[in-house]
Design goal:
Blueprint (H helix, E strand, L loop, with lengths): L8 H15 L10 H8 L3 H14 L2 E4 L2 E4 L4 H27 L9 H16 L6 H17 L3 H20 L4 H19 L3 H33 L5
Antiparallel strand pairs: 1-2
Helix pairs in contact: 1-3, 2-3, 4-6, 4-7, 4-9, 5-6, 5-8, 6-7, 8-9
Length: 236
């Protein structure tokens, strides 16, 4: 029994391991041995075992013949995750369009939240962020916050689940300054269109934005697969 207000040890290990899996801090091809993880996190094997069981139930860890490994999406699965992302995010914006179409007195989005995100990305336009996990987190935050602001937090929770599974791929793919500028400009456009009361235009921008990301990530993943195959044909 834990004291009130204290986070159980297995919960802390779960959150730490979940974060490290998502950010790529743990090598995707590395077997998740309980003894080694217990040493890394400074705990016994029991909370590690409990955390791994939860992560396997979450779909972030998968069992192979010789043990547990981080989940690595196949190319088709990666495409399906992006398809699910499109369904979730466009549904959130469609809720706003439905409200406006029914001539409700106010839009469904929490516009104060949209304003805050707009300010963040206007700042990024002036001072572009470096590629890496922090940028990926800011991008995810923009999309999940706007989706939650549309009035259905369950959609945002589902989107977070998608992000956790694709985040290792995105974190390891460092965008160019041009791609960062494009991402920033599109985020600003989406927020401004929502604030202007044009959710249908924001939806079109959003769909193009996600579609561009999907195409890029899949192309980069395919390229990585081909390079891996090529590397097997040569040696140092």
């Amino acid at each position: 029994m834990t004291r009130r207000g204290r986070v159980p040890l297995s919960e802390r290990v779960y959150e730490s391991l979940r974060r490290d899996l998502a950010t790529g801090a743990i090598v995707p091809t590395e077997r998740l041995g309980e003894e080694r993880l217990a040493e890394i996190y400074g705990v016994s094997r029991t909370p590690v075992r409990e955390a791994l069981a939860r992560l396997q139930a979450d779909g972030l860890v998968e069992r192979h013949a010789d043990g547990l490994y981080p989940y690595r999406p196949r190319l088709e699965e990666l495409d399906h995750l992006y398809e699910l992302r499109i369904v979730l995010e466009t549904r959130g914006f469609q809720r706003v369009i439905d409200v406006v179409g029914d001539a409700e007195p106010a839009p469904a989005h929490d516009l104060s939240v949209v304003h805050a995100e707009l300010d963040t990305w206007l700042g990024f336009r002036e001072n572009p962020p470096e590629p890496g996990p922090a940028l990926v987190a800011a991008d995810e935050r923009f999309h999940t916050i706007l989706l939650a602001a549309a009035g259905n937090t369950a959609l945002a929770d589902a989107l977070t689940g998608v992000y956790v599974r694709v985040r290792p791929v995105r974190t390891l793919d460092l965008p160019t300054p041009e791609r960062i500028a494009t991402m920033t400009a599109e985020h600003i456009a989406i927020a401004e269109q929502l604030l202007d009361g044009a959710p249908d235009a924001a939806l079109r921008t959003l769909t193009t934005h996600i579609g561009r990301s999907r195409t890029h990530v899949l192309a980069r993943a395919q390229q990585a697969i081909e390079l891996t195959k090529l590397s097997r044909a040569v040696r140092d």
